[in-house]
Structure formats: C-alpha cells, structure tokens
Amino acid sequence: MKSLFAFFSGVLIAATAMAQDIAPDVLIKTVSEEVLDIVRKDKDIQSGNTRKAIDLVEAKVLPHFNFTRMTQLAVARNWRQANSAQQQVLTNEFRLLMVRTYSKALTEYKNQTINYKPFALKPGETDVRVRTEIKQAGAGKNIELDYYLERQGNGWKVYDIEVGGVSLVTNYRESFATEVGKTGIDGLIKSLQAKNKSGEATSVKK
Predict the structure, then answer these.
(1) Is 114 helix (H, G, I), strand (E, B) or coil?
(2) How far is it, in rounded angstroms, from Cα 167 to Cα 172?
(3) What is the pLDDT of residue 50?
C-alpha cells in the first residue's frame, strides 16, 4: 500500500482528454483504464525502469495537476511568508517530489483494479470530489481513493487526493510547517531539494 495512492492518483489523469470539456468522473475513468493498460503491458516499468516511469508521468500526469494550488495548500499560512521567487521554487520542488513518488509507484504496480463510485456533476459546479476504490489482488483490503478537482477553462485539474480519508496536502502540511518553524522558507526549500536529489519518494502516512 506504501505507494499505491501515488500510482493511482497519477495514472488516472492523462493527456488524451485535453481539449474537450469532459466530466471529471468520465475523464478519470476513461484515461485511467488506458494508462493502466499501458503499464500492464510494459515489462520495463514493471521491472523497475525508473526513467521510463518518469517519462510516463511527465507525459500523462503532470499537465492535469494544479501544482501551484497543491503547494500553496501544503505550505498553508506559511505560503504568505514566501516571496514570488521562493513560491516558484517551492512549487517546482513539490512537483518534482510528486514525479518521483508517482514514478516509484508505477514500478510497484501489482494488478490492482479500480471501482468507480457514482458521481453526479451539478450545473455550475466548479469544485468536485470523484470517489474511487482500489481493489487489491487476492484478499487484500480495498482502499478508498478520492480526487478533488477544480474546473479551469474547459477542463479539470486535480488539486488534492485522499487515500483512506487522509489528504495528500494535509499529510505534507505538518512536516512543512515544522521545517519552516525551524529553518524558515529557505530551509523548507533546501529540505525538498535534498529529498529530490536523493530520489526520496513519499507516501501518505497510515
């Protein structure tokens, strides 16, 4: 379960639904099955080819996440302490941390499947939650996985993920606040840079 949330949060949003105004649940379901099929057939990724996994994440995932908002939510009130240059660096480092997390999870995929729960988009809604459930192979316990998306232009972008009721941005918020309290914004930046340099991947605590 260590990196499952990262894999499924990553692979569900891909670059085939870009130009059309597709409902968020349809986008998640349609593209997730397409990307899961790619991973199932790609022996290199299944064997731990990190470079290939990173390329897949870069191409299929990142354009559909709002990393600025995700970083702002994770840094919380300390975001206002950062100047524009620091905010940009924080966003870039957080994005890279997610790339490493997702790519690691891609190489750990073990034939899990997804159950998509009922969803209804109300007229004029611009902020939604799409609920899914990861079905483990064998007798493993299923995992609830929810996506929070906001409308941007004609499409939707993810700004938070919950696994088993634990928010991704909230999971980072405590450690980020602690780091800022000790070493300031620059200290948080250095901490993220060190994690990314070492290739550390992080998952939601359980």
Answers:
(1) strand
(2) 9
(3) 85
Asked whether the beta carbons of 203 and 196 are under 8 A apart, the reply is: no
Element (H, E) at 189: helix 168-198
Q: In whole angstroms, how large is the CA radius of gyration of the chain?
A: 17
pLDDT at 204 over 80: no
pTM: 0.80
Residue 186 one-letter amino acid: D
Beta carbons within 10 angstroms of residue 54's beta carbon: 16
Output the six-digit token pair for 111.
């034939």
Question: How many beta carbons lie within 10 A of that of residue 83, not counting itself?
Answer: 8
Amino acid at 107: T
Amino acid at 23: A
Pair of tokens at residue 89 = 């660096």
Of 143 and 94, the structure prediction assigns the larger pLDDT to 94
Q: Strand locations in the chain, DSSP E?
A: 113-116, 127-135, 143-152, 155-163, 166-167
Report residue 35 as tokens.
């990307």
